[in-house]
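User
New here, explain this?
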Amino acid sequence: MYPGAYNWCNMPHVRRAEYPRVNSSYILEYVEVIHRHHKRTPYAANTFPVETYPWYCDNEALFYYGAPLPTHGANRSANTYWSVYTSSSNPLTPRGFNGTCQFPQITRGGLDDSWQHGNDLYGVYHDLLGFLPAEYDPNIVNFRVTNNAITSQVASMVTSGMFGGEVQHKLPLLIQPASIDSLEPAYTCLAAYNNFSAYGAGSSDAGWTSHLKAASDLYAKLDTVSGIPPTDPGFHISFDHYFDNLSARLCHAKPLPCNASNPSLCVTQAMADAVFRLGQYEYSYLYRDAGPRTLEYSAGSYGIWVAELAQNLRDAMQTTNSAGIDDSTSSGIRYRHNIAHDGSISRILSVLQIEKMVWPGMGSEVVFELYKRKVDQQYYIRVLWGGQVLRSSNPTLGVLDILRVDILLAYFDGLVGQRAKKIPGLCSL
């Protein structure tokens, strides 16, 4: 596979073997990473009423516990984890898969991919470039997650892959209040969602409904196998639910589903491939191809995170300037790592007006690298998507390879304002 090749189950990311190095006339000053979580079981809402085989997760544990910090108490907590079971006295059958998994949860394969992702990043930013510290330092590095537990499951492995045994000690994961979380995103932006509802999933916009009508025969076949009623809106306003259900199986080497009453009636690989193609069409339409509405929607619904990124870049420049040309390691965060979702990555790609939009697969990654040019001490930005330089169709941005950082900051400010001051107006708050 060529560098940056699309792989839904484990998307390409920054790795030493393919990393495009910047020439020595530039100094790396700051890095911010945002990526989707890694592969998982499907969401419960995306499973079929009756699944014909179970899904077991006995090869991993999801730890849920609270503990006093050492400075606030001597009592220690046990390392407790959830163990899914069903009771013979409970006559009810769970929707979807039987077994021992949560729906969703990061699977063992997803945990291993997460560890490797962290290890690959460390291999570039520490081993190759000497940018990251050898050991975890909260004054230099921080990690952020959303209020969805699967991002914390990923974070525990990413951090271990980066800093090894050092992070067996307590490591904070930054998280914003659920009602205003900008990373997921979860804050209210009524105007953005009204805009989306006029052209996106569930709308009557011809650009949206045409592919659903054209796929009516495919829908009929899928519904017959799955037992999903044709009137179920979750499965029929888009291909999201079928995409998640089928891709999760294939990412974990599980067979495609068959009908619970007629095992000879199954989803074929050709049917699954058609679902995947239509899903790619949908994300391209929702975040790029529907025109200016897509940028308006993404800027409104993800503008706070964009403004946070812009401020982080400004703070990094201020820190390095005040610390001196040769010393930017003694103060200030140099590396921020955000673990998020496909909707997060889709919106940032939309804001950047990526040249070719895709549905961001598992582990999809965007990296912002801030450089200072030695000769004139000016700052430049490089943006990597899938480990390679991102290409924007916006003529102001173009190929985001050593672009003057003030150009990108002015673009962000024009959309959302410094410190997101335009968002209350954009979101009708």
About this structure: Strands lie at 26-36, 62-63, 81-82, 141-144, 173-174, 335-340, 365-373, 379-385, 388-389, 403-404. The chain is about 40% helix and 10% strand. The first strand starts at residue 26 and ends at 36. Residues 217 and 394 are 38 Å apart (CA to CA).
